[in-house]
Amino acid sequence: MDRATFACSTAFFRDYNSSSQGAFCGGHVDFIEKVESFTYSDFFRDYLIPNHPCIFSAKFTEDWGSRRNWVTWDGKPDFDHLLQKFGEAVVPVANCDVKEYNSNPKEQLPFKEYVNYWKEYIKNGYRSSRGCLYLKDWHLSRAFPEQDVYTTPVYFSSDWLNEYWDAVAVDDYRFVYMGPKGSWTPFHADVFRSYSWSANICGRKKWLLYPAGQEEYLKDRHGNLPFDVTVPNLQDRSVYPRYDQSQPPVEIVQEAGEIVFIPSGWHHQVYNLEDTISINHNWVNGCNVAIMWCFLQDELAAVQREINEWKDPMDDWHLQCQLIMKSCTGIDYKEFYNFLKVIAENRISVLENGLDDEASAKNTPKAAISTLGMLHAVFDLKRAVKVLTSLSANEDFKKLDLTSLSPPPEALLHHLKAAIDTALL
Predict the structure, then answer these.
(1) In the chain, where the domains are located
(2) Torsion of CA 123, 129, 135, 136, to 10 degrees
(3) CATH fold group of domain 26-211+247-283
(4) Comparing C-alpha atoms, which of 33, 38, 31 is closest to residue 52?
(5) Predicted TM-score (pTM) of this structure
(6) Rounded to the nearest 5 degrees, what angle is found at the Cα of 288, between the Cα atoms of 334 and 345?
(7) pLDDT (tens digit, 9 = 90+) per residue, 68-98?
(8) What is the distance between the alpha carbons of residues 52 and 295, in angstroms, rounded to a whole number?
């Protein structure tokens, strides 16, 4: 990447807000062909900020170890190699033929058992009494960090979600998916309304995408989203009264090696058209952290409505609402504060102290910040300040016991603003 060009990009001198996200018109999705002619600043300007999808060609993944080693000469999953490397692992597997609430039920299976099932499934004409099983949300990178699987493209390297969860060593949002032809993922939007990127190691996928906001027209009369947006009963106005107002989905057929970028808050449904393996990340950064914050406020409001009748007799009602929200979404307001704090302090450290040679040689958050440039760090801090200011003023946040937060919100905001002012001198 040309860092000098990126650092001078006018994108970082604008004060972007949610109104800058232009509506996505029509079904055309840009295809990015050449690695050498597409910079991070191009991606930032044309796709991250406007929240538009795009597809990266297979040239962007051709040097990945998984593309070389996990695939047979004719483009199929190399089961023998995968068993050799991961045969003793235990993996999460969903049954695509069963609906449980608005998703598929999952179980944990030995990887070698799943591969044996997959082989038999193919041999039996893609049929099995066990149903269509799909290996989903496998934290392979966390379980096998020594394996040469892939390198995160620079376009997706400003990744606050994984930067934070790596720091607290609790979780991550890097996944491997493997499944036979016909396996699929029901209609959904990604965790925290994050961005996602998905790279096919082998096989082909079909995506049905709805721009953010379109999902409102797909809700039934009770306000529930459909499990499957292809079923005929969506056209029944007595059940889905606003379906006629929805746009047709944006359709993408993703080929082997290609990467699909899914914008923040876009609902989607995905089918494997062939036996397919993919690498997937969910990620948040300065461009969509405000969307994450809005989502958390909506989630808390929904919890509060559900247990409103218990508000008066329950002394710790606000705390209970936070606990329920965290059990459903994976985060509460106090952890969201700590999330923003970790992200901000990493950037302040680089701005104030620079990057030592040892850190720059490693795959660390500080190395990624340095690669993207100091103005990117300032942009991140400005976005963090906006959301922290809103969080600090939020009445539900102020009703919590904040004494455990260190530093206190006011002190952190002061430090962030001072770091921004110093960096821009």
Answers:
(1) 26-211+247-283, 288-424
(2) 140
(3) Jelly Rolls (2.60.120)
(4) 31
(5) 0.93
(6) 50
(7) 999 999 999 999 999 999 999 999 999 999 9
(8) 19
